[in-house]
Amino acid sequence: MSTRLSVNVNKIAVLRNSRGGHEPDVVRAARTCLDAGADGITVHPRPDARHIREDDVHALAALCAEYAVEFNLEGNPFAPPRPGYPGFLALCDAVRPAQATLVPDSDGQITSDHGFDFDHAMAELTPLVSALKTMGCRVSLFANADHPALARANECGADRIELYTGPFADAHARGDQAALDDCARAAGIAQAAGLGVNAGHDLSQDNLGAFLAAIPSIMEVSIGHALISEALYAGLDTTVRRYLDIIKNAAR
Ligand SMILES: CC(=O)[C@@H](O)[C@H](O)COP(=O)(O)O
Ligand SMILES: NCC(=O)COP(=O)(O)O
Q1: What structural domains and CATH numbers belong to the chain?
Q2: CA of residue 8 to ligand 2 center, whole Å
């Protein structure tokens, strides 16, 4: 099966929230992505509600149910609830996403920049993963490709990892191959441990083809920042189709 494309629409909400009101409409944008052929929608609501809000999560979950596609909800399961953010597990319980991707972000981070420490996180993660699976969610863990204990990611019952591809994207832009080799090695280690492998962060039309050519077994890529930026020039429908073409060509 070829790699699935899940479009992250966080950045649509950034633009909307910059003025208040409803435009651009997150659900309309997500619908455009799905009509163009995207396989699912990702959001990573942050506790400060800087972009995706709780009401967006509900509306996008309903949209994904309407299209019978995967809704991938990302977040830090340890971040406490606060007004406007009920907590990651409570959100999952309310909307039952097909996939819950756990990301160990702290509050002030501009964006995600690291995965879990698999030497130390297992005891805390195990009951959370179990609760999410009881809700019917597939569980994926955000992971640095060079973490020495990656093979332990399966110990908490997770189904997949999501390789953090920020370092790959930076290295690719410099013409450096080493981070891609790290990702390929990490994918092999995770698969040998029985885990599926997703990937995301800073993937773009410039680097996705090289990434998938080296690691064709990636099950899903979630792409937001670059895709939404590129869509400002080419349009959302065209941009999503371009990503799907890259994925199709990489699978040949
Ligand atoms: C886990 C990951 O890499 C993405 O979800 C990324 O964190 C997007 O979040 P922002 O849109 O807030 O940067
Ligand atoms: N999980 C990664 C994601 O959803 C999108 O990350 P980015 O493309 O916005 O960097």
Answers
A1: 4-250 (3.20.20.70)
A2: 6
